[in-house]
Amino acid sequence: MIEIVAIKGARGELIPATPEDAEKLATMPMGTSVKVSITAFHNTRFHRKLMALYRLGFEVFQEMPTEPQIHRGREVAKSFDGFRRDTTILAGHYNAYYRLNGEVRFEAKSLSYRRMNDQTKLQVYRDVLNQVWGRVLRQGAQYKSPEQVDEVVERLIGME
Question: Which string of DSSP letters, residue by residue, matches 70-92?
């Protein structure tokens, strides 16, 4: 199942909200029949801004050197979805549960924008910004502060 966020266009068409949403949609062959369930977001700007922050952080993260690793016969790769989930967990937005072996596992919370008020959305964004800044952008890029990163994110969503 592919899940994307889309924006309704002037002629009734659904347009992917972010480049990631467009990429997911592009994986479907032309003429594929789909079932659509629509849930309206109260603030698509927040979603676009948060996704732009994740993208910016992941671009720098991809460029950071890591030793190639093999785990159980498979090459370990950097993943946008993994980066997004890990950053959300590090920002404190997760559920924890026990695995069968007794270890604790963390799972990123679904950031259900329609269930959040504007203050909560802002807090989620700030929490993620602080993690992306502190763990990636501060050492891996030319950004001097979280505020500067926020300005770049604002410009990025203005260009979408």
Answer: EETTEE----HHHHHHHHHHHTT
